[in-house]
Amino acid sequence: MGSSPGTSRSKRAHFLRAALPCFALTVLGSAPVAAQSLTPDLFSPNRGGFASPDTLPTRRTAGVPQAPSDALPALPDPNSDFRKRQQAPARPWQNPTNQNATSQVPTYGLPAANGASSSGYDSLNRKRQQPKFYPGQPKPKRPAGPGSRAPTTTPPPSTLGSPKIAPPPSASANKAPVPAAMAGTVPGQPLRRRLKADDDAFGAVGDYAGSFLIKGGLELSTGYDTNPARLNKPVGSPAYVVAPDLLVASDWERHALVADLRGSFSGYTNNMPATIDGFASPSPVEVDRPDFNGHVDGRLDVNRDLKLTTQLRLRLATDNPGSPNVQAGLQKYPVYAAYGTTVGFDQSFNRFQVAAGATVDRTAYTNSKLTDGATFSNDDRDFNQYGGVGRFSYDLKPGLKPFVEIQGDTRVHDRAADRNGYFRDSDGGYAKVGTSFEFSRILTGEVSVGYSARNYVDPRLSQLAGFLTSGSLIWNASGLTTVKFATDTQIAETTVPGSSGVLVHTYAAEVDHDFRRWLTAVGKFTYGTYDYQGQNRNDKTYSFESNLIYKLNRNIWIKGTLRHDILDSNQPGSSSQATVVMVGVRLQN
């Protein structure tokens, strides 16, 4: 069905109204008519086709790779061979499609982000591959951020040039070389806990039993003693010494328990004479003597400032040869045992420290065996001692700690009167002031001075009092030489009739020198005074000793000893001298 005549006339009217203005503009325009040339950019769907690549807001950065089809054309180099070939006229045999070469868009350089490092910012959020390390290999530190200090780089040691000068012998003397595996300097070695510095390269290593470190040793010596009984007229004898020792120490983070046990037995093959000039000898016939000194110390850490302390101690020994306490006509020395305990605490108030403890001790003697086979009781020499000790110290500054110490005790004998009818129960004590010090580990120790006194129940026995000195000093003169000083004062019981007691002062000096790590020389000098108050008897002792120790390894030492003892007494016939030569071996673990 066709359209109506009215509709056709309406369409022709609209067409004429739109065509007449266009025709008028064409006739009036002065510019020549030119058609727009078609370029690939007009139909390119890529970004940047109608805008400059430099002003494109969505342009890619160099860190983001882009597809070759999405890359923007770069300006060609006018001097390049490709530019010259592009300006030359196209030849049919060079362009089989008979298309102008200028219509092809060339690309130059490498794609964006080609060869980018594995570090830095990645806008594509790609997962980076983590570096793999060997087991135990130290991981590199993270790079420092803004504001960090500039790292101080140390130039690597140069392998060229003159070699370094060797260090002096004192820098490496008495120091065991540490293997690289033990020092932890092997590349790729797992980290290990650092061991404590070993001051003695030939010292006993010990064994662990649970959390306890156990060290044991045994010394076997033999030699000759020119006067084992310390008689005015010397009588010599071959001698041997067996000396075991044991050290057990806990390895706990808190609390502590230490046991130190040391003993010896001195034996002689010859017997001493039973009589001298028709009288009973002042020394026993058998002069073998045991000696043991041991103590067990414990500490309980309640908190940082409060500690509970305790000690168990035992001493087994005999009277010293040449002492007036030794009975005449003995077959052998009677042995005494002195044992006891101390229970106390140690409280710190910032720099101020208070330590106190209660002590209980007992001394008991065995019966004396005479040369005629009879026995003699020594119950009058047995006694109990009850006392206490307190110490107040203040940490004045690092390495200097002055203190004040006060002690008091009471001695009660098993028998009120001794063999001579004297009542020897007594009360006594001491007070002293001193300081402990440590100056750069070169000079360390403790020194104190004070006064000691003891009053007896028997009015016939005068007060036993005297000046008191005690302390120890260690001076590390060099890496090879160590000097030690020690002094001590004691009030000892006696059986001398009319004498209230013995005031004993002892002073000792020792020098240790290492010729090599395995060869050590030790020199000792000891001076002592024995004041028997009430009897005007004064004894002086001198001892010169030298030792040479050859250390084969940590388990075997060879030791030589030369000692000369002098006893100088103001009583006629009581002085003596003796020389001892011993050679032995020490076994330890």
Number of helices: 4
Distance between the termini: 128 Å
> Element order, helices and strands?
HHHHEEEEEEEEEEEEEEEEEEEEEEE
Mean pLDDT score, rounded?
82
* CATH architectural grouping of the domain at 40-49 and 200-588: Beta Barrel
CATH class of the domain at 40-49 and 200-588: Mainly Beta
- Residues in helix, %: under 10%
CATH topology of the domain at 40-49 and 200-588: Maltoporin, Chain A
| Number of E-type strands | 23
**Residue share in β-strands:** 35-45%
Q: Could you name the ranges where pLDDT drops below 50 across 5 or more consecutive residues?
A: 62-72, 92-102
InterPro entries: BBP2_2
Biased composition (Low complexity): 65-78, 171-181
Region (Disordered): 38-191
Organism: Bradyrhizobium canariense
What is the topology?
Blueprint: H1 5-28, H2 81-87, H3 169-172, H4 180-183, E1 207-209, E2 212-225, E3 237-250, E4 256-268, E5 275-276, E6 279-280, E7 289-301, E8 306-317, E9 336-349, E10 352-365, E11 368-369, E12 375-376, E13 383-394, E14 400-413, E15 426-439, E16 443-456, E17 464-475, E18 481-492, E19 501-516, E20 519-533, E21 537-551, E22 556-569, E23 576-588
Antiparallel strand pairs: 1-2, 2-3, 2-23, 3-4, 4-7, 5-6, 7-8, 8-9, 9-10, 10-13, 11-12, 13-14, 14-15, 15-16, 16-17, 17-18, 18-19, 19-20, 20-21, 21-22, 22-23
Structure at a glance:
By secondary structure, the protein is mainly beta. The chain has helices at residues 5-28, 81-87, 169-172, 180-183; strands spanning 207-209, 212-225, 237-250, 256-268, 275-276, 279-280, 289-301, 306-317, 336-349, 352-365, 368-369, 375-376, 383-394, 400-413, 426-439, 443-456, 464-475, 481-492, 501-516, 519-533, 537-551, 556-569, 576-588.
